[in-house]
Predict the structure.
Amino acid sequence: MRVLGVDPGLTRCGLGVVEGGIGEPVRMIAVGVVRTPPGDDPAERLLTLQTEIDEWLQRYSPDAVAVEQVFAKANIKGIMGTAQASAVPMLAAARLGLPLAMHTPSEVKAAVTGNGRADKAQVTAMVTRILKLQVAPKPADAADALALAICHVWRGGAQDRIAQALARQKAAYAAQAAAQGQRVAR
C-alpha cells in the first residue's frame, strides 16, 4: 500500500509518501514541505497547496491519503488556517476516488513511538529509525507527514480490510435475503 501523508498547515504543509504493508518494512518514497508566505491572500495560499498536492498525487499515485485531524487549541486563527489547509487534500482524494483517513495526533504518535504523548523529537527519531533514513526529515512538518503515512499503513490497512470484509458480508446477506424474498433492514 502506498500512502500520501499530509500534515496540514497554511505556512508549512508537510507531505510524505511511504509504501509498505502489515508485516512488511515501510519505505519512504518522497518527503517535502509546501511553504506559502503568511502575507499572501489565504485563497492564493490554498491554491498553492492544491497545486502541489495535485502534483504529488499524480507523481506518486498513492492508494490512500492520510491527513492529520485538526483539533481545537487556544490559537483560533491558527486552527482556521490548519482546518482550511486540511480541506485541500481531503478534496483532492475525493476527486480521485482515493480512500481518505483522518488520524489524530495522539493516534499517530502512538503508532510510531508507542506513546500517544510523544514529543516532536521522539516522533522524528522513530520515523528516521522506521524508515532507515540516514538523516532525519526536517522540518518537523515533513517528519509528521511521514508519521501519518506510516500510521495509516500500519493501522488503516487493517481497518480498510475489516471494512471491506463487513461490506462483503452485508452484500452476501442482502443477496441471500433477496433470494429468499425477504426485505433487508438497513
Q: What stands out?
A: Helices lie at 42-60, 76-96, 105-113, 120-130, 140-179. The first helix runs from residue 42 to 60.
